[in-house]
Amino acid sequence: MTLLLCGKDYEPPPLYRQLLSSSSERRKLSSLLWSQRIPGGPCRELPICPRPTRMISLRNLIATGCSLVMMLSVGAGYSLPAAQATFALRPTGGTEVVPGSSGRGNHTTRMFTVPHNWTLQWQYACTGARAHFRIVVYSHTGQRAPITGVNTEGRAGRGTRLAHAGGMLYLVIISRCSWRFAVSRQAPHMPPPTPTATPGRSSASRLALHVAGNQLVNQQGQTIRLIGVNVPASAQCIPTGPHTSPGIFAVPSTTQTAAAIAGWHANVVRITVNEDCWLGINGGNPTYTGDAYRVDVANFVAVLHTRGIYTIIDLHTNAPGATPSTSQQIMADAGHALAYWTSVADTFKGDPAVILEPYNEPHITRANAQTENPWQCWRDGCLADELDQYHNHPVPGATPWQTAGMQSLVDAIRASGATNPILIDGLNWSQDLTQLLTYLPTDPRHQLIVDYHNYMSAGSKNTPGYWDSVIAPVAARIPVMTSEFGEKDCGSAYVTHYMQWADKHNVSYIPWLWMTWPCGGMGLISNWDGTPSNYGRAFYDHFRAVSFNNG
C-alpha cells in the first residue's frame, strides 16, 4: 500500500513520519487510502505496506481549509446501539461542523482548519473482544504532542472535548470499533464581566494558592488548609420554587457577610453559581442575570479577598437546552457548561485566590444515564436520561441530553489561559472517591484538588471506616477538600468527629450553609450578623480553636 501525498512541497505530518519507521503502527493502521489532488503540485507516494492502494471518493465529508490527505479504514458496515442512536454530528449550540464522519476501524482524516476554541464530539460501540477506543488530534505544524485526545476502554462510550489550539489539524482513530465523530467551531463564549471591583491581585495582594504534591501552598510557600462556609448564589436569580424570592444572593449585604464570615476565623467561601444566571440565557430576569449577576459575583469575590478569604466558584445549578436552571443535574450539560467555564475562567484567571469547581455533586448511574460505566461517563460524558427541575424533581418523559465530561470541563478552563486550582467532585453526590484516581482528568498544570462531600444519613457510606480506607489514601496523593458536609439530626457529634479527623489528615472543609435556616436545613447562623445558630455553634467554636494558616 502507498500513501499518496498531494501538493507542492508538502511535508508529511509527524504521525505519518512516525508510521514509516514503526512496523507495529504500520500493521495497526493498515487501511484503505484516499487522496485529493491539490492544484499547484504533483502527487507523490510514500510506502506504508506492500499492498496496492485503492482509491475511493468521500464527497459527503464536510471540511474547511486545505484538503490534503484522507486515510479511511476498510471494514464492514457498522451499527451503533439503539441507546446511542440519537448522537448527531453537529456541535452543541448549533454552530458549524468542520469535519464529521463515521465508520469502523482505524481512521485518519484529511487536514482541516479550525480557529481557536473548538469542540470534538465522539462516540463508539464495540462488538468484539477488543473493546478499546483511541482518538487523537494532531497539529500539522510538526509538533509530536497531540492537541487533544481520548484513550478509553469499554463496550461503548461517547463524550466531548474542548481544545484551544487552532490551525491546520488532522485526527487519528485507532480502534476496531464502530465510531462517529464531529469537530465543531466552539460557540462564542460570554464575555467576562467588567465589575466595579475587578477580582485579581490588586484586591488580594497577599492571597494566592497552588497545589504542590498533596498540599495547598500559599504565596509565601507555606502549607495551608481552607476552612470556611458555603454562600448560595444559585437559587435566587431564577426562583426555584415558592420558598425563594428573586435576587442574586440570599444574604442582605455581601459586605456584611464577608465581615461576619471573617469573624468566624474562616479563610474560604464557596459560592454556588447558577449556569443560566451567569450566562444570561433561557429568559431570566435581566435584573438578576447576565451582566448584573456576573458583576455581583465578581464584586463579592473581591470583597472577600479584602478580608483575607479565598473563594471557590462552582457550577451548582444547570439544565440542558432551553430548560431553566432550577435544579442541579446528574452532571454538567454539554450545551452550556463549556461556554460557562470559558467565561468564568476568563473572569477569574487573573486571581490566584480563586479555585474553580467544574461541577457540584455528579450522580451518574446506570439507571439515569446511557452508560455501563458511570465513572467513564463522569470523565468523558454520555447521554443522560434524567432531567431534574425544582431541586432534584425528575421530569417525566424527558428527552435524553448530552452531558459534559469532567475532562472537557477541565480543558475549557485551561483553554482560557486560567492557571487556577481546579476542584474535582467524585460520584454519588461527591461521596464516592473509590475510582476517582483511576479516572482523574488530565490537567497540564497539575493543579487538581479532590472534593468529598460528607453528610450523615441512614445507610450512608460516610463512616470513620470509609474515611480511613478511601479518603485518607486519596489525601495522601492529592489535596482533598470537603466543600459540603453536615448533620441532619440537629446534633453536632458527627460533624465534630469529622472535623477532628480532617484536622489530622490535612483535609480542608466547608460546612453547609451560611443561611438563617432551622437546624433541619443545616443553617449555620441565626442572624445575618454572623451569630451562630445552635447547630452552627459547633462549627464556630471549632473554626476559632483550630490552628490553620490563612495565607
Q: Which fold does the CATH topology of the largest domain refer to?
A: TIM Barrel
Query: What average pLDDT do the residues reach?
Result: 79
Question: First CA to last CA: what distance?
Answer: 63 Å
Radius of gyration: 25 Å
CATH class of the largest domain: Alpha Beta
Helix content: 10-25%
Number of domains: 2
CATH evolutionary superfamily of the largest domain: Glycosidases
Shape: globular
CATH architecture tag of the largest domain? Alpha-Beta Barrel
How many helix segments?
Answer: 13
Give the biggest beta sheet.
Answer: 7 strands, antiparallel
Q: Strand-residue fraction?
A: 15-25%
Low-confidence stretches: 1-97, 186-204
- The assigned structural class equals alpha/beta
The number of strands is: 30
In short:
With 551 residues, this protein is of the alpha/beta class. It is 21% helix and 25% strand.
